[in-house]
Amino acid sequence: MTKNETATSVEEFLVWRSNLFQGLKARKETIIELLDALSSNQQAHSVVELSLNPLFRRDYNSLYRGIQEFLPTQTDPNYEQRIETLFSAVSRTIPPTSKHYNLFGIDTTPCPRRFAETLADKTFIHYPNPIKGNKPINIGHCYSVVCALPDQIDTEKVPWAVPLSGERVPSKHKGVNQGNQQLKKIWQSSLFSDKLSALVADNDYSQKDFIGEQVKHEDVVTITRVRSDRVFYRQFIRDPNQAKTSGHPRWYGDKFDLKDDQTWTEPDEVHHVPFTTKKGRQLTVTISG
Q1: Are 109 and 125 a contacting pair, CB within 8 Å?
Q2: Model confidence over 134-145: pLDDT tens digits?
Q3: What would the 3-class secondary structure string for the chain be?
Q4: How many CA atoms lie within 13 A of 38 on its CB side?
Q5: What is the pLDDT of residue 73?
Q6: Pfam families, per this entry (predicted)?
Q7: Contacts of 175 by beta carbon, 8 Å cutoff, 6+ apart
Q8: CB-CB contact of 202 with 185 (8 Å)
Q9: Which pLDDT score is estimated for 155?
């Protein structure tokens, strides 16, 4: 790296650090030192061990208080401004994209805490079990995470994600509802309003509670997987030449069963996309719409 590139990187880092500092509500110096300790960590195995890092000059009590108090609350009169500042700081870590849209991803991730006896609001969570026959469950918390998905890095072509929002899902709520609240804040931010936003998610987010909220945003396209046994129904259009009958007209049109290709009609569009796997295998994906 040349001297000019180094100077530019240092300047960008200082701007990012300043935006992050301004977006914090309280314990600003504590959080900045905690981030320094976390960034230079090589041996800490728990949060409290970060207080032993030379870059963290406070005691472990300040560490926990900083984590509990640094985020702005909605009762803060400058809440919207602080959130916008935090998003601005995060957005500076997202590399510029060559696409004409911003790509985001959302999912929930489990955090098992079965031995934390005093932890509040624990619940059963889905957690993969490597032992065949055991139920994939555990006890702990579940977190909803929204990430920006930038282009693959030029070096090594490795895709990566930039976390934008992470919130715990209360035991009485569903992950999709928590995700709706997080995404609403992101879509309202002016930082991502210059381009179309594409959101990708797995089949848990293909339900009406989630899709119904996302279609309210004009500049957002939501792409989700659906279960292979999902059954759709086309919109019913009454034949104008058909005589009206008594009773309510049909609610739904013809069935579209993903498992039964006999219910499929001719697609309006078909695209064939070739690609090569990491092992060098040549495959072609057929997309019918």
Answers
A1: no
A2: 888 899 999 999
A3: CCHHHHHHHHHHHHHHHHHHHHHCCCCHHHHHHHHHHHHCCCCCCCCHHHHHCCCCCCCHHHHHHHHHHCCCCCCCCCHHHHHHHHHHHHHCCCCCCCCCEEEEEEEEEEEECCCCCCCCCCEEEECCCCCCCCCCEEEEEEEEEEEECCCCCCCCCCCCCEEEEEEEECCCCCHHHHHHHHHHHHHHCHHHCCCEEEEEECHHHCCHHHHHHHCCCCCEEEEECCCCCCEEECCCCCCCCCCCCCCCCCCCCCEEECCCHHHCCCCCCEEEEEEECCCCCEEEEEEEC
A4: 11
A5: 76
A6: DDE_5
A7: 108, 142, 144, 169, 204
A8: no
A9: 53
What region, left, alpha or beta, does residue 5 occupy, with left being phi > 0 and alpha being psi -120 to 50 degrees? alpha
Mean pLDDT over each residue of the chain, to the nearest integer: 86
- Residue 86 phi, psi dihedral angles, 5° rounding: -65, -45
pTM given for the model = 0.78
Bridge-partner residues for 272, per DSSP?
286
Yes or no: is domain 94-226 CATH 3.30.420?
Answer: yes
pLDDT number for residue 156: 62
For residue 19, what are its two tokens?
């935006």
Where along the chain do its domains lie? 94-226, 227-289
